[in-house]
Design brief:
Helices cover 65% and strands 4% of the residues. It contains 4 helices and 2 strands; from the N terminus they run H-H-H-H-E-E. It has a two-stranded antiparallel sheet.
Length: 139
């Protein structure tokens, strides 16, 4: 297992970024009349998955804040699935394209659920320094 130094090292982030770039490329095929609706919506939600993962990483001092941000990741991933389904049902994408993208986001959400279920493993622990009188202090 490799050392995780920042959010970019997380498998879930790498999977989310790959899916986001896939969404970006696929959404280039949408008709121009979708530019300010479907195109913007699916790109925004897919990018938000990555951004919220980065934010969650920085909130690891507080379990509730960390879990809340991971919940945001899940909701943005689910929203992206909805927009992908709309793209397929509107005839912009083939069913196989939708199914593959949907599966990518299912995997991402599964990874996030595991992080939430084991949030304590991801938290930043405060360092403790012993003082001369045997007391300890958080640093």
């Amino acid at each position: 297992m490799s050392v995780i130094r920042n959010y970019r090292d997380l498998d879930v982030y790498q999977n989310a970024m790959a899916a986001t770039m896939n969404v970006f490329q696929l959404s280039k095929t949408f008709p121009t009349e979708e530019r300010y609706s479907l195109t913007d919506q699916i790109r925004r939600s897919s990018r938000s998955v990555c951004a919220n993962l980065a934010e969650a990483w920085r909130k690891r001092r507080y379990e509730a804040a960390f879990v809340s941000k991971l919940s945001d990741v899940e909701t943005e991933a689910a929203e992206t699935q909805v927009w992908a389904e709309i793209a397929w049902r509107s005839g912009y994408w083939k069913e196989q394209t939708f199914l593959e993208l949907n599966e990518a986001y299912e995997k991402i959400m599964g990874q996030v659920v595991l992080m939430v279920d084991h949030a304590e493993k991801w938290l930043i622990r405060p360092r403790v320094r012993k003082q001369g009188d045997g007391e300890t202090e958080r640093v």
